[in-house]
Amino acid sequence: MNRLTPDQLKARTNRNRAIAGVLVAFIVLVFGVTVLNLKRNIDARKDAIAAGRPVGYAG
């Protein structure tokens, strides 16, 4: 097994941090989209109830 040079270790650390940052950004994006979709569905349900339309359920 070869030992890594300090430059290689620094490059690996930077690469790992970049991958972690992208992963966190993706998780935040998915969470945000989920929350927005839930809010939109809640608002649509309230509007349907207020208008007297039947509210369907997924099934």
Q: Can you walk through the features of this model?
A:
The protein has 59 residues and is mainly alpha-helical. It is built from 1 helix and no strands.
List keywords for this structure.
59 residues; mainly alpha
Summarize the SSE layout with pairings.
Blueprint: H1 6-51
* Cα-atom radius of gyration: 23 Å
Helix/strand class? mainly alpha
Structural shape: rod-shaped
Q: Whole-number average pLDDT? A: 93
* Relative strand content: under 5%
Give a brief description.
By secondary structure, this protein is mainly α. The chain is built from one helix and no strands. The chain has one helix spanning 6-51.
